[in-house]
Amino acid sequence: MSVTSRYRDAWESFWNEAPEGQGAVFWDAEPMLTSGRHLAHFEPHLIDPGLPLIDLGCGNGTQTRFFADRFPHVVGADLSAAALDHARRSDPAGRAAYRQLDAADKAEAETLHAELGDANVYVRGVLHQCEPDDRQPLADALAVLVGARGRAFLVEPCQAAGTVLAGLAREPEGPPAKLAPVLRHGLTPGAAPDEAVPQHLRAAGLTVLASGELPLFTTEYTPDGARIELPSTWVVAGPAAG
């Protein structure tokens, strides 16, 4: 199974229109507020920090480059070729590798696993953007990538984040400038139920090892200057026998 052409086309068009540079899109907050905070919860559960680390849904690679300074082999993977073009241009030194990957296609995950072996996988805000029928295949592919020794860290906006975003979209002056392209391209942030992540992981044969809540920072601000934060939950998972 692979993602629908509508979904793929939506991401391609979004990234083709996205400005260059870190912080140019709605969710591209600086690593000290995102992956840096997440890593503090992820690292204690890693069996082998020397395994390849896959930043799944890497977008323009901001978080990928952060990980590349901390792990020996980092791969930024994304459905969108245009997103990967952004990532490569932002990483002229080639600190990380970049790979186009349909994470809802188990066969593609199996091919990548055959190349890399077991991996630790970081997933920020991917499942909640997926079409409902793609969520379980994505979790199944995640289990393939993790294998027997890897760990996965997922952070996803809560359903309450959808309420926050809907309120921003209804503002009299329109949605914030960086949220508007997300909505215009038909992407659906905050659409997954809160219980979806652990359910899909368990169905994929993974065990939830730890979980918690953190605000998910965006790059947008309210009219009074406050940074927009979305409520989110994080989960660390590993193979059932791990």
TrEMBL record:
Keywords: Methyltransferase, Transferase. It comes from the Bacteria. Transmembrane segments: none annotated. It holds the Pfam family Methyltransf_25. One of its GO terms (biological process) is methylation. GO terms for molecular function: methyltransferase activity. Residues 54-142 form the Methyltransferase domain. This is Methyltransferase. It comes from Streptomyces ambofaciens.
